Amino acid sequence: MATAYIVDAVRTAGGKRGGKLAGVHPVDLGAAVFDAIAARNDFDTSKIDDVITGCVSQGGQQTMDLGRNAVLASNLPDSIPAVTIDRQCGSSQQAMMFAAQAVMSGTQDIVLASGIESMTRVPMGSVATLFIKEGLGHYKSERLEEKYPGIMFSQFMGAEMIVQKHGFTKDDLDAFALESHRRAKAATEAGKFEREIVPIEIETPEGRELHKVDEGIRFDATLEGIAGVKLLQEGGAITAATSSQICDGASAVLIVSEQALKDHGLTPRARIHHVSVTAGDPVIMLEEPLFATEKALKRAGMTIADIDAYEVNEAFAPVPLAWMKYLGADHARLNQHGGAIALGHPLGASGTKLMATLLGVLDATGGRYGLQTMCEGGGQANVTIVERL
């Protein structure tokens, strides 16, 4: 089987809901990261075989094949095809894995995997809610309702179930959230994100400026402040402060074959070592990364001790906490530059976003192997393992 290589990975700095990226159309967010990939890497972009774009909320400004529209808005040739996919929060990680599989199969040589999500312009759940309000139907069919009567497949409820099942306290969640902000703050101030972030020109009341710092980081975060945020559910443990931040953003990863490296004089940053996806309980749903990672490591002939850095999406604090507990993982190797609690979770853009950050962590620490995984709607989880070169 052929090897798939990662040449580059970029992302926008996260924008808060209604924040600095709110004035940028999602198509243009995607075009910006596509242009950055093209500008940073000297190769004939007409040779890109496909663009695969992840997006969760495919409504309004994010419809009509969002990825293709971003290609058309970018400086890439119009001859490049594109497709938009949805595997919920893992959409662009799946895009990356589809790209890697295309290269590994030998059917394509250069594929751009990406993710785009403006949670300001197309709010989470807005498409399903619109159809329900208009009397156009619910996502649960009669047969699905028969199998799961009265269950709404809530990620929030799944997170609360993980808290109870794994014996965490609100204090555990608060402490984890604080550490996410501290790590994101330290990484920002040390310039750790400079290689991965694509500055986006925006209009502000003071004039034009470049957005290049993740807007959600609380640089003055304290445990007292986090602990004081009200519970999202009476009797529960999760608050907005221990949940991922709503975020606008885009990201992209360039994946190529060995032949493409030679033909275009490209230098790889990493190789794809393993890709897999699994599914489990759709009710507790967010627990699947635990079992997906266990299976992935076994298939790759590795243990958690072999992995130098891991990115586990901080959808809610109990998810990475349970992941660490189950696998015996080292918190020092987890989300070393902070996670979605501080940096934001732009849904379909988070998969390739995490890869950009993971590669930056491996470069900064000199680590060899990196692993990323995330919980996804429907009780699914993707796992990608890379080897830094």
From TrEMBL:
The keyword Transferase applies. Its EC number is 2.3.1.9. The active site is at C89 (acyl-thioester intermediate), H345 (proton acceptor), C375 (proton acceptor). This is Acetyl-CoA C-acetyltransferase. Residues 267-388 form the Thiolase C-terminal domain. PROSITE patterns: THIOLASE_2 (PS00737). Keywords: Acyltransferase, Transferase. It comes from Sphingopyxis alaskensis (strain DSM 13593 / LMG 18877 / RB2256) (Sphingomonas alaskensis). InterPro entries: Thiolase, Thiolase-like, Thiolase_C, Thiolase_CS, Thiolase_N. Belongs to the thiolase-like superfamily. Thiolase family. The keyword Kinase does not apply. Residues 5-259 form the Thiolase N-terminal domain. GO terms for molecular function: acetyl-CoA C-acetyltransferase activity. The lineage of its organism: Bacteria, Pseudomonadati, Pseudomonadota, Alphaproteobacteria, Sphingomonadales.
